[in-house]
Design a protein that fits this description.
Organism: Caenorhabditis elegans
Number of domains: 1
GO molecular function: G protein-coupled receptor activity
CATH architecture: Up-down Bundle
Largest sheet: none
Keywords: Membrane, Receptor, Transmembrane, Transmembrane helix
GO cellular component, one term: non-motile cilium
InterPro entries: 7TM_GPCR_serpentine_rcpt_Srbc (IPR019420)
Structural class: mainly alpha
Strand content: under 5%
Shape: globular
């Protein structure tokens, strides 16, 4: 079983390293090199790139530590796993909440384009920041106050599930189920808009809107199918030892993020190539 854990850890580490480097390169190309055009309507998508960069950078550090634990017990440090997983939990909450907000922003923009065009600029993105912060604070309140978790972790603990008590574990499962339902419903709406309604309105503004909608659709679909669904399935299999098989859950999650990053790169660089060959008026 140790060999299985090592193999899955290496695969997850490879995927996570690829993901954060790819997202970092996209941000660098947009804001530093400026060889990918900046689009105001994609501001929330760029925020998602930044969050993904941080999330998978932290995730990679955690996987390196887990890999080291399998090689030698000398690197095992009490409570270090908490210091590695806790920030991942924080950024993960930001990540899932931001995905939901981006998706809902696209749903409103797609189905009510005139209302969206006239009023979206009046809504500051700081409102999204306040909402995300509220969700993060709620999670931390439940974790430390309501469920009374502590940072005193058993030395043999090497995963999220042994780091938390049953109270927060139940809360987290409900949290993920609700997130999956919301993202699933909004993804269906975006799918209908992207593949049906978009082709009925061929205007330059709708072209940008469809691009933002495509980002949200890909993002929410991958999260539902490859991030939330696999852990939910494993949670329904009580005979499976999470210590031995739990690392398998991270493979579809990290692999899906690589796919998402490659799709995002393709979309943005395709626009760059199109702008380079377009005639000058």
């Amino acid at each position: 079983m140790v060999v299985l854990v090592i193999i899955t850890t290496v695969i997850s580490l490879t995927f996570s390293e690829t993901t954060w480097l790819l997202n970092f390169y996209l941000l660098y190309s947009i804001f530093c090199k400026k060889n990918i055009p900046f689009k105001t309507e994609l501001a929330l998508v760029y925020c998602r790139f930044a969050v993904d960069t941080l999330f998978y950078f932290l995730f990679s550090i955690n996987k390196i530590y887990l890999f080291s634990r399998q090689i030698s017990e000398k690197v095992v440090i009490k409570n270090l796993i908490f210091l590695l997983i806790w920030p991942i939990l924080l950024v993960g909450t930001v990540r899932s909440t931001l995905t939901f907000l981006v998706t809902m922003d696209r749903v409103i923009g797609s189905f009510f384009p005139i209302f969206y065009y006239n009023h979206r600029h009046k809504l500051s993105n700081y409102i999204f920041l306040i909402f995300i912060s509220s969700v993060v604070i709620l999670d931390q309140y439940v974790l430390f106050v309501y469920c009374k978790n502590t940072d005193d972790i058993p030395l043999e603990c090497d995963n999220f599930h042994c780091m938390i008590n049953q109270c927060f574990n139940n809360y987290w499962k409900r949290h993920e189920r609700i997130a999956c339902i919301l993202l699933g419903c909004s993804s269906i709406l975006l799918f209908l808009r992207l593949f049906v309604l978009t082709y009925c309105q061929q205007t330059p503004n709708n072209h940008s809107l469809s691009k933002a909608t495509l980002f949200a659709l890909v993002d929410s679909t991958i999260i539902c199918l490859l991030n939330i669904l696999p852990p939910f399935i494993f949670s329904k299999l009580p005979k499976i030892n999470f210590r031995n098989y739990g690392p398998l859950v991270s493979i579809p999650r990290c692999g899906g993020s690589v796919i998402e990053g490659l799709i995002s790169f393709k979309i943005l660089t395709r626009e760059k190539q199109a702008s380079q060959i377009s005639p000058v008026n």
